[in-house]
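Morning F.,

Quick status update on the modeling queue. The single chain you submitted on Monday has been processed. Sequence for confirmation:
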Amino acid sequence: MVCKPMVDYFLDHCRYSVVMATRTKDKALRIIDGRPHGHAVHWEFGDNVILDRLVDDADIVVSMIPPTLHVPVAEACLRHGRSLVTTSYISPQMMELHPRALERNVLLLNECGEDPGLDHMSSKRMIDHAHKEGGRIESLISFGAGLPSFEANRNPFGYKFSWSPKGVLLAANSPAAYLRRGERVDVAGEDLMARHWFVDIPGVGTFETYPNRDSTRYKDAFELDDEATLFRGILRFPGWCNTLHAMKGLGLVDDSKKHDLTQATYTGLLASQAGLDERDDMRRVVCEALGLEERNDIIKRMKWLGLFDKRTIPLSEGSPADVLTHLMLSKLSYGKGERDMVIIHDEIVVEKDGHREKRTSTMVMEGTPFGDTAMSRAVALPAAIATRLILENQIAARGVQLPTLRELYKPILEELPLWDIEFEHRTSTLDAKELRE
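Structure tokens below.
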């Protein structure tokens, strides 16, 4: 869903030869669209013979497969001395490859997409500038979002899928952590959606936000002191968090076990997952279980989605999360010509010579009707530019890295305006000592 702008950049702008290795070759062929220097290869994860051949034949590798599968690709890159670019979070298993990557003189660049990626680069640019002025960073707060544009926001969930649908749902189970004035705040996965609040993005609108994974691990990368606040959050239109929290409580975001779904109905699955009796009026049963009135917006969203229908689930096997993903994808997909919207908003509080300032960096971009989505461009283009810089030997860094290095973020952020990805900067003076909770 996000590879096409990257392939376009490589084939049309850089004039590279590109090999797309994928389980579904026809999808790659559609993206290549007959261009002579583009090639599609059928490859399924686990076929290490083909993987080794592909990596050995390449000058550099970009992995856009599911995040849990990156490490074997990285290991192949180490065997053949090739650098790797991904847009995914650095896993502990990936981080363990750092010493070997240094020994092999290989760069394993991760988190070089939209969020994570552009948020890191925008934040680090502001922080480095403040440090150069002699300022101290009191707080870094960063928000990212992939949402339908305001005119395309046409369903009660306020959301449509522009990247991995199942990934969106499963991320709601992830524990999170952040720093508040140097103190670590942990949020359990089961509580994630309940720990949300409203935030206003100047010039854009009001959204709800919740913690995005473990922010504390970026403290050193952003060169923050021990008393700083560090929070990374996801933005959603109001109503999403409470609804997803309720569906999690009903067991609908559980991906731990596959079930035989032959002849299963939505109400039957809902009843079995939540430990409820399946009755004629499942809506009332669920209201009683959740302690909600039938007029509650959460119940209305679940009804609109079809969770109270006795229809047969059109899957033969799957987890409850698979069923919910399939159902939501059928109702929360973009229509023809509809635009998505990507938001990155970073803000730092800088203290210098007894004065305090809030400095913000905001990027809002919408997709092209009948063309590339904003999400695909915001994810793919930073990674594509980084790949070009590595191939042109403009990047000296080696090992497992983030794009918070100046040699990476500076040229990437300088080129992105050519592709209509640009940040707006604002500065305001602060008098109070309060930080955002």
